[in-house]
Amino acid sequence: MNWKSITLYLPATAVIIGLLLIVFSTAFPPVHARIDDSDHQQEITEFNSTVSRVNQWFRNDWQAAGLSQAPPADEKILLRRLSLALHGTIPSLEELRRFEADQRPDRLQQWCREMLEDPRFADYFAERFTRAFVGTQGEPFLVFRRDRFRNWIVEQLKQNRPYNQVVQEIISQDGLWTGEPATNFMTHAVLNGDVDENKLAGKTVRAVLGQRIDCAQCHDHPFADWKQHDFEGLAAYFGQVRLSAFGVEDRKNQEYKVEDRITLEERTVQPEVPFQENLLPDSGTRREQLAIWSTHPDNRRFSRAAVNRIWALLFGKAFSEGAPYYTRVDDLPDPEDDEGTGTALDLLADAFVASNYNIKQLIETIAALEVYRLDSTTDEIDDSIVRQQIDHWAVFPLIRLRPEQVVGSMLQAASIKTIDQNSHLLTRTFKLINENDFLKEYGDFGADELDERAGTVPQALLRMNGKLFEESTRPSPFNATPRIALASGSPEHIIETCFLTCLTRYPSQEENQFFLNKWQDEKSDRWPQRTHDLYWALINSPEFSWNH
Amino acid sequence: MSIDRIGNLFSGLSRRDLLKASTALGVSFLLPTLSARAAEKRGTERAKSFITLWMNGGPSQLETWDPHPGTAIGGPTQEISTSFSGVNIAADYPMMAEQLQHLSVIRSLVSKEGDHERGTYFMKTGYRPDPTVIHPAIGALIPHQLETQGLEVPPYVSLGDGQWPGRGGYLGDQFDAFRVFEPGRSVQNMQARVGEKRQTDRLEGLEILTKSFRQGRRYQSEKSLHQDTVERALTMMSSEQLKAFEIEDEPESIRNKYGDSRFGRGCLVARRLIETGVRVVEVTLNGFDSHANNFEAHTNRAADLDKAFAMLIQELRERDLYDSTIVLCIGEFGRTPKINPLDGRDHWPNGFSTLIGGGGLRSGVLIGETDPTGTATDPKDPIKVQDLYATILNQFAIDPSEELMTPIGRPLYICEGTPLKQLLEV
User: Can you name the CATH fold of B48-195+244-423?
Assistant: First the structure.
């Protein structure tokens, strides 16, 4: 073989060998050591032990307060809760039928796990985390790309990356907001071309540590231990952040200076954490140090804040809003105050740290708790006792659905099949356009979406008379209503199907009778219209727009 | 006029049928108690109302109420003399020039917010944006503080497609401005989608479902106020007061004088709402963000603003509503004295203009002065919006220094300003 033929054949041979290798490796993936069964067993034991410890904590709490608890909720209602919390919609009829046919004894837990693996979970939860870190604003233009940040969170959730690592990257990442999406946390705080250290300090404490320090920006906190000095010290950790052609970076020699509010003179402020200095690493940029300190396993504020937020997303209301704290989601008391008593929040926070900050496992744990599975009804008639039951989670709280849950549920109820990434492009486009129009009128809750809010008259009007309901439920070939009416065969069956599709439950005898009476003597060509009217009543009922 | 059948906006249901159905629902709302009497009062006897003409995008003071023709910063804008002796305004506003004697002119508003969203927040609430609390707009505070009994339509209405209508903030979403995107055309979602028989059927179905959901959840259901908002929505759908949102029965000559623009119709609807007893109305005029072609943009806006604003003042006066109605024309900031290379002006929160009048305030007062050379940043006699709002609240007999408690238990002043003595009647 001469040199010429070598130069001719060698590259081709290399390409063929390369291709063969790729095909081979795809067809026969390397066999990794299977998860050791004993490890898995240990995981299950730990999971069960956390669930039973937290259950016990609540039982003791109820006993001490002299409260009885609500009966367990129907499993379909639990499925509704999970679907609303994890995917932002009620379950589809298709899903309900599959759930009913599922005979596994632990089907709810299995479904929870499957929902967490569904791309709808990462998508929906990413938006919630994005709001907590960067809000809903699209500005500042050019340097802030909210979509990139959100998509990046989607990926982190899909990979179930440990939460502490995600937060560390958000606080300390360098680079361009397009290429390094986590840096958008820094750039969302750009004001007049400069990074606003105060906004970052306040936001970090709220989103990461679940506390509020913002008022210490101007004065000492009136009732917590935060001092103005603490605020400045934290802000100084962001004091070296600058924007350049390379994106976000720290200028290591830059001093952080503030104007003294009293003397009006400029003074240099050194970075300083308000507590547990011993958790600070010895090296790294200021932001890297802050990232390690704030997510340190011994910094209990971090794990408590994470659990409190996830709890809020599952229940619709933060743990802290009930007994014993009675505070908002990002206004947790100092953990030192709980020393020795250790609430359910602490038990879950410990388990979260032990699981290596596994978000999905935390969700599964909370979903398996007795308190998550209680009904929202109570036999108690004394209001003050009912209030206590709610505060102590002895009855499931009634929480108004957020706007995106209302619109997601309306659209899902109008379709028999599950609307997800496998849906037809037209269906998804219709969903997107209608969602946006609806949200514009209904109002978006923005970054504070976990706060309790009152319903408004325009929202009631929009549900009753709005275009979305009309277009997605009127008898037309694209909507579920005529199909339910025609395929169900009898009024009983239609009524039952509509209840399942909209309220995820069967009608009671009384309800059944009432609607059947309405349908009496109706010819079948009027069934689609009757179905439409029944849908209207179901979707406007409080049961539809509240999590219960 | 029959109260059974409500105008062409609500062809679906009659009031009587809705009431019948609502009674079946166990709804116990009252029939319109609005006091025809309160709404019919005139002059200083009448309860106060407040109309804001919101100039969205930040109008140029130099092309509106503070022109400096013939200077380096003045651009091509000319000025005209007005009925307010000694005060000239931009030549694009001949009708306002006639009405100006009934208003006061402030040419020295100052703010620290040069971004649209932040600026709007500040100018509507009197507070700078704060990540820990959402302050209520001044328009939401007024109905919160005052009686609105008998009013079946919302006490705070925002007309036009404003990007950031006033919000209830920590007072609650129920105090948000009620938005009407196309004033004078129709109020969205106000008409039942089906005829009366089907609507009655639907409401009966809703009643059964509401009842069964309450079983075992009475306390939580009541606390949710869900039923309450549904009832208020039904009341509103059948209310005769909704006619205030319509303009068809206004004479054509009147409609023409306001102008057939979204803003012109908005101003006419605003007058009708005030007459009906609505306490606060905000009418938005979009399109002032003139980073390019500033002068052309402002001339175009003036075509809508001049006649609608002038007609509003004229009509409020003719109907003896002006003494009880404060009218304020304001935007989120002004525009730079410097003209940029695109013949535009950029954001300028230092020394911009507003007009205010009515509601028992003094007219014919001129406050502040900007530098005709554009070199001095600060105007003479700078005025903070907080003081302007304290002045307005004062006319409503609301004490701005009273503290309200936010949901996290933080006390905040209703307004951090003090009334401007210059504007108060002596």
Answer: Alkaline Phosphatase, subunit A (3.40.720)
